[in-house]
Amino acid sequence: MTNFLNFIIHNKFLNKWFFSTNHKNIGTLYFLFGSFSSTLGATFSFFIRSELSTPGSQWLTGNYHFYNAIVTSHGLVMIFFAAMPILMGGFGNWMVPILIGAPDMAFPRLNNLSFWLLPPAMILFFVSTWVDGGVGAGWTLYPPLSAFLGHPNPALDCLIFSLHLAGVSSLLGAINFIVTIVNMRTIGMNMLRLPLFCWSVFLTAILLVLALPVLAAAITMLLTDRNINTSFFIWLSGGDPVFFQHMFWFFGHPEVYILILPGFGLASHVISREVDRSVFGNTGMVQAMGSIALLGFIVWAHHMFTVGLDVDSRAYFNSSTMIIAIPTAVKVFSWLATMWGGDVPLSPAMLFTMAFVFLFSVGGFSGVVLANACIDVYFHDTYYVIAHFHYVLSMGVVFAIFAGFYHWFPKLTGARFNVLVAKIHFWTFFIGVNMTFFPMHYLGFMGMPRRIGDYPEIFARWNFVASVGSNLSIIAFIVFFYGLFYTFFYYKDHKLTRSERKAMVKEDLRLRLKLGFLENFVLIFAVTKYFPDPATEVFNSMIELHNDIMFYLSFLTLFIFWIINIICYIYSPYFNTEKSEGWTSKINHNTILEVIWTMIPILMLVLIVKLSMSLLYIFSELSYLLNLIVEIIGDQLYWYCKYYLFFFETFVLIIKSFCVASLFVIIRASVPRYKFVQLISICWEVFIPVLLMLFFFIILYFVSSLIYFELIFNNLRKC
């Protein structure tokens, strides 16, 4: 026994990887664990898309509980065992002490414990998938499906214990990051000089400390409901299933920002280092991240617009959700201003970062659509929601992870990744994820529900395209792992010299102590023909509101895409050998410019909120005319509404200026007279500033196009 203990104590391998207190070794363990979990989650997604590639049962043979179990496993693995360990555990452990000049984390042994809680959590998760067909309650675990009557087997109990262990791991790591960043910064580095990646980790750790206990309480109450006969969420015994939704989403929506805030920090750091200049509006970026973290706690019920909230609550969560778009827009414009005027290389890290900025913006715009309570009633639990949060997570978080990985790969491994393989990986992955998730917007327009393993023939075309894109994404993962294998075993020039690695560390220390202060296009995103024919005027007016919103958001999307293309052409040595210095290259802060790009989303959102609120309250006044019909056909439950007292005839008055519509409905009652109800009206006090804003955009388009074409003609002249 003594010899065995001596072997464990003195074994170098065990001391380095199992008992290590070195933040780099622990960060590497997080990367390895997250890579395994990512591969597992991607495999689950491949199974999902292969089943949905064509109508009918492909390999499930009618076992749709198993399909729901795979969907549940995919969501939980990607969130709790892949994204969070890689972002906070991997990049956080590796880079935060280096960026703040600390020798290690504040609590090294606690850091080791926080990692080694994850493998037991994963083992319990595996057990939950093997017991009686797994957990098919969805990653949200809503009762009564997650209660004992819905899942009478112990699989869900194992999953709850797994989430408890993963939550304790994240909580210990978050406390460690907070103490490290507050107390162990190097001399001369105050909080204003803190790198943006460290700020993002710091704010994420605060969110974890505040949000995770609420999830722990919710799943513990669910556990007692299942096993010791309490009735927190069992409505037959006086409980409230909607209460679980409130508790879950009070954690669940900050969880979205727990995932994306480190991605913001990675994007800021990569852009700053690759472009070789400080982030434009550094203080505004910190304030924007703080605003996003704060607002993330007060918007949770926008996930619950269909549970029966009163109209005033829906109006509040409608408006507060849209406010988050303002600090997010500030960050996007700051990233664009940082790239404008810099020396922009088209390296793999920079390609992933620019794709992250654009694709995350697209996902945010569909989020603005879903924030409208009257529109969300239709889109709720359809594939439009799937498309939205995968554009934010699959294209936001994952692209940011790859950007940080390629940027810091020399520091993490002491080797160089093959650039050609990395660029093949980028383009394959970029095309694949867009082919997978963009068609889901159209499936959402058509009303295809999520978490259903079969579908009618009408949804077949877009599902097939999405499945082809999923296969392409899997090929991209294979290319990535091939690149890793090739780099370490066959790439002869991959090793960095000791002097090169030291120079990289010194350069990073120097920079981190710096203080950086149309309509046809709309139809691409909002093709009305993909909506079913409106059966009521309520549905018709919702479609018109959606198209009006998408006009403004599509205009902004085109603007961001155009600016990124101009940046690539003007400031990338790949296209322009002569260095072009923009006027923003001379400054790191401009108050007027930052106020302008803060007011742009504010004016846009005020107009959207005005229209949305008008429609929402009119819908609530008409709701007493509805008669809800519920029918059970086979194993499916269908519901629809009938109007018994009134029927509608409509006409639409389109104001041609910038495609803003004002809708009026004529309601004919049983008596022979007409009553006019104005559903949406134009607020001219808001509309005039929006016209000025659009005029400002047109001027920017015109000026940037002149610069763009002038450079093209100059290059042609040289040829």
How would the blueprint of this fold be written?
Blueprint: H1 2-10, H2 12-17, H3 23-51, H4 64-100, H5 108-116, H6 118-130, H7 155-183, H8 196-227, H9 241-275, H10 282-295, H11 311-323, H12 325-339, H13 348-370, H14 373-379, H15 383-413, H16 419-446, H17 460-489, H18 498-512, H19 519-525, H20 537-571, H21 591-622, E1 626-633, E2 636-643, E3 647-655, E4 660-668, E5 674-678, H22 684-718
Antiparallel strand pairs: 1-2, 3-4, 4-5
Helix pairs in contact: 3-4, 3-5, 3-17, 4-7, 4-8, 4-9, 4-15, 5-7, 6-7, 7-8, 8-9, 8-10, 9-12, 9-13, 9-15, 10-12, 11-21, 12-13, 12-21, 13-15, 13-16, 13-20, 15-16, 16-17, 19-20, 20-21, 20-22, 21-22
Summed up, what is this model?
The protein has 719 residues and is mostly helical.
Radius of gyration: 27 Å
Distance between the termini: 79 Å
**Fraction of helical residues:** 55-70%
Unreliable stretches: 505-528, 643-687
Average per-residue pLDDT, rounded, comes to: 78
**Number of helices, counting only DSSP H or I runs of 4 residues or more:** 22
Structural class: mainly alpha
The overall strand count is 5
**How do the strands line up in the largest sheet?**
3-4-5
Q: How would you describe the overall organization of this protein?
A:
This protein is mainly alpha-helical and 719 residues long. It has helices at 2-10, 12-17, 23-51, 64-100, 108-116, 118-130, 155-183, 196-227, 241-275, 282-295, 311-323, 325-339, 348-370, 373-379, 383-413, 419-446, 460-489, 498-512, 519-525, 537-571, 591-622, 684-718, and strands at residues 626-633, 636-643, 647-655, 660-668, 674-678. It has a three-stranded antiparallel sheet, covered by helices on one side. The chain has a two-stranded antiparallel sheet with strand order 1-2. Helix 7 packs antiparallel against helix 8 and helix 12 (325-339) runs antiparallel to helix 21. The longest helix has 37 residues, at 64-100. It is globular, with a radius of gyration of 27 Å. The termini are far apart. Residues 505-528 and 643-687 have low confidence and may be disordered.
